[in-house]
Amino acid sequence: MEDFWSAPPVARTWTAATLTTSVLIYGRIINGSRLIFWLPYVFKFPVPEIWRILSAFWITGRDWEILYDTYFLWTYSSNLERESPRFTQPGDFFHYVAFLGTVILGIARLRTIILIRIQATSGLILGSSTFLSPMILALAYTYSQDNRNKKVSFFIVQLAAKWLPWVMLLAALILGGPSNALNQGTGIIAAHLYDFLTRLYPTFGGGRNYLKTPAFVRRWFGGVDQRAQRKGYGTAYASQTQQPPRPASGFSTAFSSPWSSRGQGRRLGGD
Description:
The chain is mainly α.
């Protein structure tokens, strides 16, 4: 349990929810149809089933895919939350995941509308109702951008990380067909859009980053106006409570201000 609580908070909660939900669904302990995304029920009157927006990202594939999806979800989410230079402030990774989820849901809804118009069939059949697979591919895409030349393994294949999301997409095409690949490909679109809006456009296009983590999310993760300390799971933020003054020392620690090694000082123009 100590290892669990010391893990990155978003990654550990998401992975635990995914494994628990999937085991309960495929073990026929709970009804999975109450957790998949189906828009008419999300906004159903008088009792909207809002939880479907979240639970649709907690459902893995069947059988061996329970372990496969859970493993890759934990691997990429924990690595990004703990080590990615993109997510250095509290709440950054959560905000990133929320953005990915919004884009994936939006694309899935648009895809459903287009397919209904073309084929005049039910959106439940054509549209996506679970979104963990495209989310994992989105995480893998961001991981590959942070570690482009790092050697990684995908089953028995070893390759540069920059090729990882495309190999995963090819595997989805071979194992699940074009519809499965199209569904998972929305994750790459979402992750690339985040990369474009937060890094590429501000850095190379001279624009602004409009996707900064909102203040209320930072407060939720306890990170507004607080001093950062790097921890095993990412960045921890300690409260800025007033501390009694300490004698100046001849050196500064890793967490102290460099000015702590200075003397008391004098006012300019004073005696």
